[in-house]
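Task: sequence design from structure.
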């Protein structure tokens, strides 16, 4: 029997577990958290990610729970549209992270919750998959040294508020942006990304008083932004400092492979992180193949996975970083806005 150990029971770990189990592999998933999370932001499942979810046995459930995203637009802080509204090309579903994980967990083998791994000692599986996120211990094994995440110089505050929308809207201002997106369960997903240096002095602390912070930081912005801020569920607000990874020279070593944030953690500005993780999971499962055809030597198969996904993930990571800079820039905003309008006019 071909065996796989998966370190991390998040999106990538659960998707890989479901896909390999479908191919006859015996899979163990080690997750340090005591259970699936009850909170988290909304994630966009683009058509290619939905195709992976279908393969994993979770696509139907995700479509039932999620909300179709039909339109997307970028506006200035004052509410002026920067280019025309863009209609989604193909099915794009927005679903909250907890509901996505529940859907994948229902299709994956039982997860060993509360299993915090500090190294790979004692794992004698044919394949070991590092799906353990931006602070991956598996990455240290693959590279032979610690690679620290890089601060991007911006903070993110996310949460939810009651309501509904089928439009993904971002408002861009100097050093700040504010997003409003669909979300399942009768809620709207919101997020604020900001350069701390661009925030007015004497703002309340975003952890202690998220609504007060947002009121001060986004005073004078479009009424939709202000209305959303007034309606936020304070208890759902989460504040973190955005980070990504440098480009890694490898994501595979012998029988160990990295996927998702362990391989290419990225800024959230393209909304592609979860999708890239699912594409990693599918490529890894394809490279390994069915358990009854596995030769017992994973190195050649994992080399094929690395060729398929290392540079692809890193390209998206670089584009996400560039989009973050474009959205938050305080310089050359007028040419940027004209360029966006021009792109939208011919898109």
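Answer:
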């Amino acid at each position: 029997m071909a065996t796989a150990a998966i370190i991390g029971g998040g999106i990538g770990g659960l998707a890989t577990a479901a896909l390999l189990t479908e191919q006859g592999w015996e899979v163990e998933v080690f997750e340090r958290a005591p259970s699936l999370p009850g909170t988290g932001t909304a994630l966009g499942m683009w058509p290619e990610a939905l195709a992976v979810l279908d393969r994993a046995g979770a696509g139907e459930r995700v479509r039932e729970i999620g909300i179709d995203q039909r339109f997307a637009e970028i506006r200035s802080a004052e509410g002026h549209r920067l280019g025309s509204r863009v209609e989604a090309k193909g099915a794009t579903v927005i679903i909250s992270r907890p509901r996505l994980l529940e859907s994948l967990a229902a299709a994956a083998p039982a997860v060993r919750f509360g299993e915090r791994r500090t190294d790979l000692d004692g794992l004698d599986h044919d394949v070991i998959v590092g799906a353990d996120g931006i602070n991956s211990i598996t990455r240290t094994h693959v590279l032979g040294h610690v690679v620290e995440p890089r601060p991007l110089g911006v903070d993110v505050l996310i949460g939810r508020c009651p309501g509904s929308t089928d439009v993904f809207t971002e408002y861009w201002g100097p050093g700040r942006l504010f997003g409003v997106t669909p979300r399942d369960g009768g809620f709207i997903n919101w997020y604020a990304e900001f350069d701390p240096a661009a925030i007015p002095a004497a703002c309340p602390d975003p952890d202690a008083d998220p609504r007060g912070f947002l009121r001060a930081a986004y005073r004078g912005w479009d009424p939709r932004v202000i209305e959303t801020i007034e309606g936020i569920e304070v208890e759902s607000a989460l504040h973190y400092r955005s980070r990504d990874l440098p480009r890694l020279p490898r994501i595979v070593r012998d029988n160990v492979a990295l996927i998702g944030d362990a391989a290419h953690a990225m800024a959230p500005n393209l909304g592609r992180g979860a999708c890239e993780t699912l594409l990693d999971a599918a490529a890894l499962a394809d490279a390994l193949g069915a358990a009854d055809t596995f030769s017992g030597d994973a190195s050649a198969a994992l080399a094929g996975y690395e060729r398929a996904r290392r540079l692809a993930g890193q390209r998206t990571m670089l584009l996400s970083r560039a989009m973050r800079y474009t959205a938050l820039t305080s310089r050359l905003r007028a040419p940027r806005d004209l360029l966006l309008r021009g792109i939208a006019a011919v898109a």
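The longest helix spans residues 299-328.
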